[in-house]
Backbone:
């Protein structure tokens, strides 16, 4: 029927979104054919874990794991593959100095970055509220609007958390960090949007803003070149959002969705939080090892990074 067809279409879009996260961390230095070849492999990897969590026959679904629209399935999983790609490719030319310190390679147009974030923010109303698969659906009247509310509150709080954290840590109100805070909050609330109260969405967003700033700096400190902050914004925030659902899930909403139980704050039980952590561990182990193994084989057999002169000229020119 229509709901089933819509669900399948969402899966296709979500798989594409997860794969786009991977390319963000591999940008400016991966060969063009790698995008196509790994895209096929990652689609298979994605399909396995999405079945675990979202299919009625999935083992994590049967345990009651809560991931409303994909903080784990889409974002955390994409970030894991992105991390594997960034590790195997190595940093862009000139990203790190001889002393190991990261050199900033800023985007060329901040107004475009702001516009792109606003477009993503708006698009998330399809991502999260759209996952209700209906605006008026019988006993769930108004549910679309409720999920839109929690999503929007988290994103706004993420902007505040991101720029405030940058102001404290970097000593300046960095716009790019504010934008990362918005995206990290949207990533985090994606698991929780249908399960948590509005106040919890604000908390999730504020913490996500901090994660976005600290995460980017931490990844750079490790010597990993992640041009768009995929590992922190999608990975670390995805972990936070998945665990936050186990903390803040409202029992009535969990019952309404027939998925899991109430969170620790409401029930005093660590059960749901434990299920969320189990899911993260299972998806993390499978996705990272499968992604790293696939890319490692491709690197050993054919090479996945462009030549230095190609990278210097720019892939738009050479590829």
Residues:
């Amino acid at each position: 029927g229509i709901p089933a067809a819509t669900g399948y279409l969402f899966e296709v879009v979500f798989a594409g979104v997860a794969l786009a996260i991977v390319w963000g961390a591999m940008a400016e230095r991966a060969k063009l054919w790698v995008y196509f070849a790994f895209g096929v492999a990652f689609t298979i990897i994605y399909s396995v874990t999405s079945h675990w969590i979202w299919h009625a026959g999935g083992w994590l679904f049967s345990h009651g794991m809560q991931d409303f629209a994909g903080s784990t399935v889409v974002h955390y999983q994409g970030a894991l593959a992105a991390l594997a790609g960034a590790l195997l490719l190595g940093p862009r030319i000139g990203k790190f100095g001889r002393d190991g310190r990261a050199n900033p390679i800023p985007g060329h147009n901040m107004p475009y970055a702001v516009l792109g974030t606003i477009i993503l923010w708006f698009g998330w109303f399809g991502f999260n509220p759209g996952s209700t698969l209906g605006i008026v659906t019988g006993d769930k009247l108004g549910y679309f609007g409720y999920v839109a509310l929690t999503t929007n509150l988290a994103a706004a709080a993420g902007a505040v958390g991101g720029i405030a954290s940058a102001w404290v840590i970097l000593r300046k109100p960095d716009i790019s960090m504010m934008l990362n805070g918005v995206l990290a909050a949207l990533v985090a609330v994606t698991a929780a949007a249908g399960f948590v109260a509005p106040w919890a969405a604000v908390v999730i967003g504020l913490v996500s803003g901090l994660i976005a700033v600290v995460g980017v700096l931490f990844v750079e400190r490790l010597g990993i070149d992640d041009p768009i902050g995929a590992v922190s914004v999608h990975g670390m925030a995805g972990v936070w959002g998945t665990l936050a659902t186990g903390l803040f899930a409202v029992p009535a909403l969990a019952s309404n969705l027939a998925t899991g139980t109430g969170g620790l704050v409401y029930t005093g039980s660590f059960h749901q939080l434990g299920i969320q952590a189990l899911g993260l561990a299972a998806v993390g182990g499978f996705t990272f090892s499968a992604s790293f193994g696939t890319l490692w084989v491709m690197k050993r057999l054919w090479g996945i990074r462009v030549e230095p002169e190609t990278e210097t000229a720019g892939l738009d020119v050479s590829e």
